[in-house]
Amino acid sequence: MPIKEAFAKFTKNKPLFYGTLGVIGLGAIVYYRHKQSATPPLSSDTTGTSNIDPNTGFAYGSPEEAAALAQQSGGGFVGDPFGGGTFGSGGDTGNPPPTPAPVPAPDTREQWISHAQNVLPNGHSAAVRQALVEVLSGLTVTSAERRIFLEAVGVLGEPPGGYPKPIKVKDTSGHPGGDLVTVLK
Length: 185
What we know:
Blueprint: H1 3-12, H2 14-38, H3 63-72, E1 77-80, E2 84-87, H4 109-119, H5 126-137, H6 143-156
Antiparallel strand pairs: 1-2
Helix pairs in contact: 4-5, 4-6, 5-6
């Protein structure tokens, strides 16, 4: 039987034809994923051997690996858990870890807003800045904006010069704001 006739017969049998296409497609996907997982990780090693520390994911001897190892041994149980050890910071226990430099207290409201944006989650969004500015300006805000502002006060303390108390809220948690409702008889 010539190839054209065999192919025509094969394509007329729809379940066999589409099943074969599906198996070929699945095989291609499995092969592609296998090749992707078999590629060696990128490293600065030019010898062809892997010099990646499996505990840190960085190249042996690199500054990144040293920092990751120092962070991993920053505290907790040090030593063999079955043969004894101590609880505390790893490494030299005679020298305490350095304390971070204190952040100076903000002198202006704008500095306070900037500090708040740095410590709040999603702090550099327009919504967070709007909430902080509107409350400090004494405007009526939503309960969500009030919550953002009070979170910043909880972390940083009150802004220089304080803030308007009570904070004016245009909605409550039980009744969200909106337009007036007209009741028909």
